[in-house]
Design a protein that fits this description.
Elements lengths: L13 E3 L5 E3 L1 E2 L10 H10 L12 H20 L7 E5 L2 H11 L5 E5 L4 H4 L6 E5 L5 H13 L7 E6 L11 H10 L3 E5 L11 H4 L3 E5 L10 E5 L2 H5 L10 E6 L5 E5 L13 H17 L1 H20 L4 E3 L12 E6 L4 H12 L1 E2 L1 E3 L4 H10 L22 E5 L6 H10 L1
Parallel strand pairs: 3-15, 5-6, 5-7, 7-8, 8-9
Antiparallel strand pairs: 1-2, 4-10, 9-10, 11-12, 13-14, 14-17, 16-17
Helix pairs in contact: 1-9, 2-9, 5-6, 10-13
This protein binds 4'-deoxy-4'-aminopyridoxal-5'-phosphate.
Cofactor: pyridoxal 5'-phosphate
Protein name: Cysteine desulfurase
Keywords: Pyridoxal phosphate
C-alpha cells in the first residue's frame, strides 16, 4: 500500500470501535473539510507568535503582519493565475464569496445557474432574476443548455452564469472552459464555484477564461474560516460594500446636512470591512504554495489510482450503485457517492464509523435537487433487507453515502472501505 502525497494532520489518530478495540481513523470525507497539511500548520505556528492587527497598527509586528497578509493575497492571485487587474477578496468561505458576488451584481442582472449546484451556488442569487437550468446529462448538454438559455435572454442586460468546477455529489468535472466560452459569446460573465475543483486540479482563472473564482480554505488543506473570491474588479469596485465598517472606507465625514457621508475604499478592502482573519489568510496562502510546490500531477495521479481501487472494489458489490450525472466514464475528482440496496445512507455511514473507524458523509450533500434526482433514479434498487431506517418510502434510499479523499489518504484507508462495504 502506498502512502499519502503530502503529510496531513490527523495521521495515526486512533478511534474506538463499537465491538471493542480501536483502529486508525480513516478520514474519507475530504469534500466536506480536508485535514490541514502539516506544512500549513507549521507555517501558522511560526507566524502565530508574531501576528498583530493589519492595516492599522504602526508597530513593527503590525507592519510585518500587514506585509504577510498582503503577500498572502499576491500568493493566492499567483496560484489562481489572476490577471493584473483582478481582485482577490478574502471572505469566510465559498458560501460567503458567492453571496458577496450576489450583492455586487449590477441592477437588472440575469443569473443563470444549473439546478444541480451546491446550495451555496444555487441560492445566493435570489434577489435577482434567476433562470435555473435543467440538469444536463453530459458535459456537451451542459454547454448546449447554457448556450440556449443565454441566447434567449434579452440583449443589453448584464448576465452571469454560475458554474461548478467539480460536483460535490458525484465528483464529476464540468466543462468550465467551454461554458465560459459560450457565456462570453452571449455577453455573459462567469463565476466558477471551485470549492471541489481546486483541491484536486489546478485552477487558472485566465486559462479557464472565467470572470471570478470562489473557493474555501478548509477544503484546500487549510483550517476553517477563510475563503476567496477572485476575479474582475469592475463590478466589485462599483458595488456597495458587502460589509459596512472600518477598513472599507476612505473617508467618513460629518455630512453638511447632519449624519455622515462615506467615501468607500476601492480594491479588495471595499468588501473586507472589520479586522481580517490574518492567520486564516496565511494558512490559505501556505496551502496554495504547498499544492503548487508538490504539483497537481502527483496529487491527481495518487487520487486517480485510489479512485481506481475504490471503483473496482465497489463494482464487485452488486448492491452498490454509484451516483452519476454524466455517466460512469465521465472524468471525476476523488469524490464518489453511492447507494447500497437495503440500506439507508445514514445507517450505512454510521456502520462504517462504528465498525470500521471510517469517516464518510451521508445525506443529500447540500445539493438537494441533484441528490434527489440521482437517488430517484436508484429507486427500486433498494427494498429488501434491513437497516433501511429513514427511507422515504419511495422504494429507494433517501440518502447516499459519499466517499472523498486526497493528498493525505493512504491506500489502506480506501481498501478498508472496500472491504467494509
Ligand atoms: N460549493 C461546493 C461545490 C461545495 O462542495 C461546498 C461545500 N460543501 C460549497 C460550495 C460551500 O463551501 P463552504 O461550506 O466552505 O462555504
Amino acid at each position: 500500500p502506498v502512502g499519502p502525497v503530502l503529510p496531513v494532520l490527523g495521521e495515526g489518530v486512533r478511534v474506538p470501535l463499537a465491538a471493542g478495540g480501536e483502529v486508525e481513523y480513516a478520514a474519507l470525507d475530504y469534500a466536506a473539510s480536508a485535514p490541514a497539511l502539516r506544512s500549513v500548520w507549521a507555517d501558522v505556528a511560526e507566524f502565530a507568535p508574531l501576528y498583530a492587527s493589519v492595516h492599522r497598527g504602526a508597530g513593527h509586528l503590525s507592519q510585518r503582519a500587514t506585509d504577510l497578509f498582503e503577500r498572502g493575497r499576491a500568493e493566492v492571485a499567483a496560484f489562481l493565475g489572476c490577471r493584473a487587474a483582478d481582485r482577490v477578496v478574502f471572505t469566510r468561505s465559498t458560501t460567503d464569496s458567492l453571496n458577496l458576488l450576489a450583492t455586487a451584481l449590477p441592477a437588472g442582472t440575469r443569473v443563470f445557474v444549473f439546478e444541480t449546484e451546491h446550495h451555496a451556488a444555487l441560492l445566493p442569487w435570489r434577489r435577482h432574476q434567476v433562470t435555473f437550468l435543467a440538469a444536463p446529462r453530459s458535459p456537451g448538454a451542459a454547454v448546449r443548455t447554457a448556450g440556449e438559455a443565454l441566447a434567449s435572454a434579452p440583449a443589453g442586460v448584464p448576465k452571469l452564469l454560475c458554474v461548478t468546477g467539480a460536483s460535490n455529489v458525484t465528483g464529476e468535472l464540468w466543462p468550465v472552459r467551454e461554458l465560459a466560452a459560450v457565456a462570453h459569446r452571449h455577453g455573459a460573465r462567469v463565476v466558477l464555484d471551485a470549492a471541489q475543483l481546486v483541491p484536486h486540479r489546478p485552477v487558472d482563472i485566465a486559462a479557464l477564461g472565467v470572470d471570478w473564482v470562489a473557493f474555501s480554505g478548509h477544503k484546500l488543506y487549510a483550517p476553517f474560516g477563510t475563503g476567496v473570491l477572485a476575479g474582475r474588479a469592475d463590478w466589485l469596485d462599483e458595488a456597495e460594500p458587502y460589509l459596512a465598517g472600518g477598513g472599507a472606507t476612505r473617508v467618513v465625514a460629518r455630512g453638511t446636512a447632519g449624519g455622515v457621508e462615506v467615501e468607500w475604499a476601492r480594491g479588495a478592502a471595499r468588501h473586507e470591512a472589520g479586522s481580517p482573519n490574518v492567520i486564516g489568510v496565511r494558512a490559505v496562502a501556505s496551502a496554495c504554495g504547498a499544492l503548487a510546490g508538490a504539483g497537481y500531477e502527483a496529487l491527481a495521479e495518487h487520487e486517480e489510482r485510489l479512485l481506481g481501487v475504490l471503483r473496482e472494489g465497489l463494482a464487485a458489490v452488486p448492491a452498490v450503485r454509484e451516483l452519476s450525472l454524466f455517466g460512469p466514464d465521465a472524468p471525476r475528482v476523488a469524490v464518489l457517492s453511492f447507494t447500497v440496496a437495503g440500506w439507508d445512507g445514514a445507517a450505512f455511514a454510521r456502520a462504517l464509523s462504528e465498525r470500521y473507524g471510517i469517516g464518510v458523509r451521508a445525506g443529500l450533500f447540500c445539493a438537494q435537487p441533484l441528490a434527489r434526482l440521482l437517488l430517484g433514479e436508484t429507486a427500486g434498487v433498494g427494498g429488501g433487507g434491513g437497516g433501511n431506517a429513514g427511507a422515504e418510502g419511495c422504494g429507494g434510499p433517501s440518502q447516499a453515502v459519499r466517499v472523498s479523499f486526497g493528498a493525505g489518504t493512504p491506500e489502506e484507508h480506501v481498501r478498508r472501505l472496500v472491504r467494509a462495504v
